[in-house]
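Sample entry (530 residues):
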Amino acid sequence: MKKYLTFFFALVLCVSLCACGSQSTGTQSSSVASSSASAGDDLSNTLIYAGESESTINPLLNNHEELPDLIFSGLMKYDGNGQPVPELAESYEYDEATHTYTFHLRQNVKWHDGEDFNADDVVYTYKELTADDTLSASITSNYEDITSITAPDEYTVVIALSQYNAAIIDYFTMGILPQHLLEGEDVNTTAFNQAPVGTGRYKFVSWDTAGGMITLERNTDYYGKVPNIERIVYKTVSDETTKATMLQSGEADLAWLNANYASTFEGNDAYKCWGFTTADYRGASMDMSSDFWQANADSIGVLNYALDKQSIVNSVLNGQGCTAYSPIQLNPLGTNTDADIYSYDLDKFAAEMKKLGWVKGDDGIYERNGQKFHFTIQTREYEEERVDIANIMSSMLKQAGVDMEVDLVTKFDWNAGYDGFLAGYATQFDPDMIYSQFVTGASGNTMHYSNAEIDRLLAEGRHTEDVAKRQEIYCEFEKVYAEAPGILLVAYLDGNYVGISGVDGLDTARVLGHHSVGVMWNVEDWTITR
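Predicted structure, serialized as tokens:
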């Protein structure tokens, strides 16, 4: 533990010194000029954003990032309070007797290539989500209650469900795709995914894969408020150190940083810091199909007793977050403290391990049925915060007698034989967001978690109309899941954004998602001055 804490503080000191040595406006202007040359245009009204690595920009395949929300529009969109409101739909009605939504679409909306948007595009998109068995998307389970999508006229879409679905109006925020460009294409592999055309606030211009730079320009034909900022240069950056360095050198105007890096910019007049609430958690997500967990799934929950989670929050997160006990802990319909059944207690851990039949071997590692308590967790090497969390978890568990091996990888490989991965997820909107992740065989259930009682509760929560009743159901889910978890939950993160002093307009009202996604929900109101 000491070793890792020493590393953290040394790292923070190093970054802090770099920040202090590169704060002048002149340094930033010089770097912006250099970026301008590479972009081939003046960047005086351009936001340079140090974002995430990208391989595709298609809302059906990549619905967790900022770019799809900038380029595409949905029937609905989320407002600052995280509530769905009409977007491409001017209005809608819901018929309770037939479980049918009728959407009345905006007229005179143009795709970025100048073609007219109409109901055929909506029908095409939702048929891809519901009828294309080859679609490699994690979200298809969100739409499994849809039975038909029809367009009685050019600006009306009727979507019928098999039963009431409390979350479906949230899922109608999915970006709509252009039928005229994609019909007959394989959505998984089409070149469109690297050169998207939408109806949203910004148009795709170019993707310099060698330089790691995606350029967007504002959509002057946008049906809503046209953004103030003319252009967004989205730099595809994986490494967290690089993001901080880019801000210091003027190569980026805005970035999401981990708490320790963000703290080094505080009090510096050349920068602004924004603190967002997020629903983003971290934990070791176990692959329940692996041989080890097939034999030892009963021993995941007990590991919580061996983790000093508050210490991890204090060190890795610089105190900016909280310990985690539930995957919907920060959701308005969750937060059942009765599900917080584990404390940091090594004596309790030892007692529970004994009950489960584990006995320490000569090397201090527990054994049962001739098998060591040893499992592997893959962690992406460039995500420093996850690497730090994984390493401290491993150290704590090792001291308690459990060998969690951390294997650093360039990207997650679900078929390489690991026993899990250092995960991050968020349920910032409707709690049904966890349905596809935890229900047996659901589209986002990459870790093969299966529990009949969890399946029942999540189906009931999805199909219950009364909000108070839904809250009871999700609170019960939290308790049941705590007793038979598939994720060794550790912490929730606060969202830290740092930008140059000339960036203005960020609104911290909305709870952000995984990797603090959603910060650009009101980007049309932002401004930048240099």
